[in-house]
Amino acid sequence: MQAYRSALVTGASSGIGEAFARELAARGAHLVIVARRTDRLERLAAELRERYRVDVEVHTVDLTEPDQRSTVEERLADPARPIELLVNNAGFGTSGSFAELPLSREEREINLNVLSLVRLTHAALPSMIERRHGGVLNVSSMAGFLAAPFSATYCATKSYVTAFSESLHGEVAPQGVHVTALCPGFVRTEFETRAESVPGFAWVPIESVVREGLAAVSSGRTMCVPGAQYKAAAPVIRIAPRRLLRTVVSRVWL
């Protein structure tokens, strides 16, 4: 099982990304944390430096802006300061009738969830392959297994992330590098707005998602589905009639 001495985490100012940063710091990893909100990143960095005595770099970046994203790509590719684990967590979802949603926001969703993830992964892999050591943990979703009306773009982007990660794993695993798709279901974060419509058993603690994800990438597993309920559901979803899935999901998703 690989241990990571340095990690770059995107979307680290809150939610799953922040939880990854905290867990990695607790394990002694030096961090580069990336998000759009400087104040949150700086507070988190100060806390982690003080509590765990690790180095924490702060990069305030909007990953949908090419000029800003390029600074993160350069940091990942810097051979003098190797990054051993990339956690591609930044992303967001839209919901509603696709024909009525603003196209600019759908494009931004694809840019962040797919294009930025691909570019950062491309920047990180060469040096990992050269060292024959490293990991990329791409945060996907159970939504990537589904076709969910009124979340068309989100499901499509997460389907891409899962397939991309699985494919890359097959390319780089023989060279000592692990690529893993993390596919959580419902996770409680400060931005979760569906709490009232989702039954209690469907929620997975954020700490469990993070720990299972790190265990999966460090041990070289292609995919991680956190939570016993989702591990049981995933095989059923893959073989269930798609029309039935669309009907069920559309009632839960909104």
Tell me briefly what this model is.
The chain has 254 residues and is α/β, with parallel strands linked by helices.
Description:
There is one protein chain. With about 250 residues, the protein is an alpha/beta fold. The chain has one domain: 3-Layer(aba) Sandwich (Rossmann fold). About 50% of the residues lie in helices and about 15% in strands. The chain has helices at about 15-25, 40-50, 65-75, 105-130, 150-170, 205-220, 230-240, 240-254; strands at about 5-10, 30-35, 55-60, 85-90, 135-140, 175-180, 185, 205, 225. A seven-stranded parallel sheet has the order 3-2-1-4-5-6-9, sandwiched between helices. A two-stranded parallel sheet has the order 7-8. β5, α5 and β6 (about 175-180) form a beta-alpha-beta unit. The protein is globular and about 50 Å long. The N and C termini lie far apart (about 40 Å). The relative contact order is 0.13. The model has no long low-confidence stretch (mean pLDDT about 90).
